[in-house]
Specification:
Layout: H1 9-17, H2 30-44, H3 77-86
Length: 87
């Protein structure tokens, strides 16, 4: 399960109702949803990935295993992909 801090509320609602595949939340404010989604995505990143200017590093340390993002299930990386589809 990925951390929920900063996660858009629509994602939590979908997780609770995901058994109904037709359930898609209504995104009232796409700009606000996008801002929250990006904040959540940034909070999920390993600390080494966020550069001083706020950009993401593409250089992965040899000993990193990406454990912070290696989460399965409806509340894992699947939720990131679903959230992107709503945006």
């Amino acid at each position: 399960k990925l951390p929920t801090e900063s996660r858009p509320k629509e994602a939590g609602s979908w997780i609770r109702k995901h058994i109904r595949k037709r359930h898609e939340p209504t995104i009232v404010d796409s700009l606000d949803f996008g801002r929250l989604f990006c904040t959540w995505w940034t909070s999920l990143q390993p600390s080494w990935r966020i550069l001083d200017d706020g950009e993401y590093s593409k250089d992965t340390p040899a000993d990193d295993t990406w454990t912070t993002l290696r989460k399965g299930g409806a509340a894992g990386m699947h939720m990131v992909i679903i959230g992107l589809s709503w945006w």
